[in-house]
Amino acid sequence: MNERRERRQAGPVLEARGVTKRFGALVALDGVSLMLAPGRVACLLGDNGAGKSTLIRILSGVFGPTAGSLALDGSPVPLRSPRHAQALGIATVHQDLGVLPLLAIWRNFFLGHEPTVGRGPLRRIDAARCERIAKEQLETLGIRVADASRLAATLSGGERQAVAIARALHLGARVLILDEPTAALGVRQSGIVLRNIERARDRGAAVLLVTHNPGHAYAVGDAFTVLRGGRVVATRSRTDVTADELAALMTGEAGEPGA
User: Fold this and answer.
1) Span 138-149, pLDDT tens digits
2) pLDDT tens digits, one per residue of 1-44
């Protein structure tokens, strides 16, 4: 396992370099740096109000930093909008997933990117192809769906996360940002999500798991960044921290913070 992780180390795809974000007098982020590399799971931890959501919005193009910069493949890049971020291969799966329960599974999988057949007024969605691709891509994440035309409402919470993750990877995501994906799930469904994160990593994606659960982070993470009060209070690799130490760093019980 350790040898496989070491082999996957590579230069970062996406970096936050000294990012600061102010809203008037409020400093939501103060000089935050973070690196996301292919085939690696980076974990961003912190309690409510730590600044995690603000950093997610900056990384996904919702708004820009007040100071500092982002870099893609080593070159500075201003993200003009979420659509621009998606076009560059940065996909964000939010807590609400973007999965519509009253649409078919395959429709949720494509959501505006459906392949078509025919031309002109006879052009139509190739439903059979959509179903086949959706089933195949979900199976790569260990989710077997006999009928992709059934409603997404019939899926469990973990399976809906799989739809969102598989969709992002199929549409070319190089960076996958997951915002508290296990927050509303039970133990079994959380396990499904964590396995899907590992599979996304193994497919070469640079994964950012944003969570306040140090146990879930430690289960899949390669590197850990802890935010508190909008500042990075610790960065750790898997080899030099435990889940209990991560929890202590989040709450400030670990003593003097270290970078």
Assistant:
1) 988 888 888 999
2) 444 444 455 689 999 999 999 999 999 999 999 999 999 999 99
CB 235 within 8 A of CB 250: no
- List the domains of the chain with CATH numbers: 2-103+161-251 (3.40.50.300)
- How far CA 247 is from CA of 46, 47, 49, 89, 221, in Å, comes to 9, 10, 16, 32, 14
Q: CA-to-CA distance for 244 and 257, rounded, in angstroms?
A: 15
Tokens 């390669």, residue located: 222
pTM of the predicted structure, to 2 decimals:
0.88
N-terminal to C-terminal alpha carbon distance within the chain? 26
Specify the DSSP class assigned to residue 175: E
